Amino acid sequence: MYELNYKPQICDQCKTCDCLVNCQYMDFDLVTAKLEKENIIKGRDSKVLDECVTCYACEEYCPNGNHPFYLIVERQEEKGFLPVPEPITKQQIIMMKPRGTISPAPVTSPVINMCYFPMLTGCIRGKLYEGASCIVGSDIFCNVMWLHFAKNSVIRERLPRMIDNIWNYYLKDSGVDELVCFHDECYGTFRQLAPAFGIEVPFKSIHLFEYLSKKLDELKDEIHPINAKVAYQRPCSNRLVPETQHWVDDIFQKIGAERVNRTYDRENALCCGQVFRAHQRDDLADDVQGRNLDDMQQAGADYCVFNCPACFFTLSDAVTERGIVPILMSDLCQLAFKKIANGG
Description:
The protein is of the alpha/beta class. The chain has three domains: 8-79, no CATH class; 95-212, Rossmann fold; 220-341, Rossmann fold. Helix content is 45%, strand content 9%. The protein contains 15 helices and eight strands. The protein has helices spanning 8-12, 18-21, 30-42, 47-51, 57-61, 68-79, 86-95, 152-171, 184-196, 208-218, 246-255, 274-278, 282-298, 309-321, 329-341, and strands at residues 111-113, 133-135, 178-181, 204-207, 228-233, 257-259, 303-306, 325-328. The strands form two sheets. A four-stranded parallel beta sheet has the order 2-1-3-4. Strand 5 (228-233), helix 11 (246-255) and strand 6 (257-259) form a beta-alpha-beta unit. The longest helix is centred in the middle third of the chain and has 20 residues, at 152-171. It starts with 7 loop residues before the first helix and ends with a helix.
């Protein structure tokens, strides 16, 4: 029912094949990249299907918005190139299924979508979230994670239901048509992935960083600059919506945080490594995490700032061992107001 909006003629006319040439985990020259891309388009076997680490980055690298990563995942599933061992994949599909326990509940704007992370609802507090409603649970889970498992079929099956649940159980009858997404996964799903598969979204998604930036403007007279050096761990799902990246710098500037200059940032950001471990590629995970952590430490970061909860849970201990404080972006912003409350 929901088909990927992919146009092979766009790739046929592409001169640079940035989606593969720019990959940080596979090494292709232009000639080989074009050959492998043709194999993928034609439904033939390709080393890409076997070696792809599912970091999402080729969605950002494609200058034409033609969804090369989604096509790779389509072919992986079609041809049985499952990046995660099948028993683990089957287990996760069962564990992450909707429970059907959702009940209608009135909400007031702003509505903050916490997706499947009830343990983080405590982040919705204080001046930044005054009057906010919070929604969370398996029945509104965005399901974007199945890209890492080469399971677009699960996304097609579950995402429309999740969107319908959000709209009909919370927003519609409350007269609310906007949803603030606490992390990139949901925002990228509603803004980029759903349209790519022709799945309608009846509400407007607001990225957490856009929301925070506007709240910081409203509360600018109460901000006490934190005067700290920060490294930002960009999540893979932000590759789906790179246009949101400017808000990271906006927020840092408004709270007096200095984004340190380092190698593995912005377009060169590295995965947190947890996906590689799920793929049973521990050597790659160790290498990527080591380079990433060395980079943060050498840049002199005081904080490592996260938006993705999975990245936060994966790297928190390792970051702490390097003398760097792990913190979610939302909590970093709270620091600018805590200092006022404590007398500066």
